[in-house]
């Protein structure tokens, strides 16, 4: 990922995505978001094409905005916790 | 009683040495006795729900939650852009129209079709009705025969039943023990009179995958239109309408993490498939399905299809991992568990299990921490065993003890572990109560018993 996006930019975006995903009030959405973000960054680790890297970076940024909005909506319509969340 | 009092004495003497009066002694004895007795029963048979909270969702074949990304795409069309997509005279109409057309492209992209071949409907039920009744009625003057299978969804079978009332002939193909049709039986069923073959891609109850590409090839060679109900398959397994020679295909929104109330119908243009529309009206959707297209829902379906296209391999790997983990756990602890449907040629997210010597309904009641179903949602109100299980030759008793575990994109490993553990515990508990299970443990073959009639 030479030109286009720097390593620190990617790291910062990853941290932001994980932090925001953690805020999903819905257990299933939260678990999925965390798992998906982690796996997507792991998968994209070997991307060398700068054009593709920028594309992936922008896709991640779009998703960060989606997560931020959806977390807000989820907070507005909270439900009772799942049985599995009360076990632990 | 003797063994009970024998167990009582050490407890009593430890806690209440010598000084205890006779009156106290008796009251303590009865109290401890009750406690001991009830504990013993508790462990074995009692239903104690110590957990609280909303149940886990394990019914992904009935419906799936709306993906937050899908909702995010829909919201602008619920909040800001309310135009009628068919209004050609102003900007409100144009913006809605372009959104609907983009959604059409997204749906087409997922199945390898041309956007012009996609029409929006209210769901897979409507798509199935339009395909079956529409094609049959249009070609009725020359062809009056339809071929389908015994394990189709209710709406396909019911449409066929309706056509039988109109004088059509319908062949209901049987399936083998594993739930898959025999291709030579299909070939033999086709006559020059046949206008349509309708076979579902993935069964909603047992998750069996039919050999769609082979069926498509047979239908093409015999010049019969091929319709497939792919509500359970779209977005989950790769589908290409051209490679598989599919002429009509039903798609549902709420099975691909999209909204409820929208679906799509793929209908081939070359060679052209003609249908008689069911709904009369303004002639939207190329006259095949009149009625205003619901822009937010169509946008939602489009977004869901795009996400499914992108995530298909990832989701499928997750399904395989979860279902394997679930089956391993169940099989490591329980015997006499039968998986309904072919173990290989099926969608891993649908696991239909029969727990022998356990009544399915009581297991469902016991597993109230998990949202499960014994079959399709349409028939979940009745206690009758499903016609799908009967079609694959499941014994009456096993059909009564079947449960479908539906895994989805948002199911977690912890949920699978929790469900497996609960299932094992309750199956063991219920079997413990069953006299039949006791007899099996003693080596009696249940099938050889002559039950006396009263």
Model description:
The complex is a heterodimer of chains A (88) and B (454). Chain A has 88 residues and is mainly alpha-helical. In chain A, 73% of the residues lie in helices and 0% in strands. Chain A has one domain. The longest helix of chain A is centred in the C-terminal third of the chain and has 27 residues, at 50-76. Chain A is elongated, with a radius of gyration of 15 Å. The N and C termini of chain A lie far apart (41 Å). The model of chain A has no long low-confidence stretch (mean pLDDT 93). In chain B, helix 3 packs antiparallel against helix 9 and helix 9 packs across helix 13 (413-433). In chain B, strand 3, helix 6 (154-165) and strand 4 form a beta-alpha-beta unit. The chains are: A mainly alpha (88), B alpha/beta (454).
Largest interface: A-B, 25 and 21 residues
Q: What ranges of chain A have pLDDT less than 50 throughout 5 or more consecutive residues?
A: none
Largest sheet of chain A: none
Rg over CA atoms of chain A:
15 Å
Q: Secondary-structure element order of chain B, as H and E?
A: HHEHHEHEHEHEHEEEHEEHEHHEHH
The chain-level mean pLDDT of chain A equals: 93
Number of domains of chain A: 1
Uncertain spans of chain B, ≥5 residues at pLDDT below 50?
A: 1-17
Output the radius of gyration of chain B.
Answer: 28 Å
- The largest beta-sheet of chain B arranges its strands as 2-8-7-6-5-3-4
- Give the overall silhouette of chain A: elongated
- Work out the helicity level of chain A: over 70%
How many E strands of chain A? 0
Q: Beta-sheet strand percentage of chain B?
A: 5-15%
Described by strand count, sense and barrel closure, the largest sheet of chain B is:
7 strands, mixed
Fraction of helical residues of chain B: 40-55%
Distance between the first and last residues' Cα of chain A: 41 Å
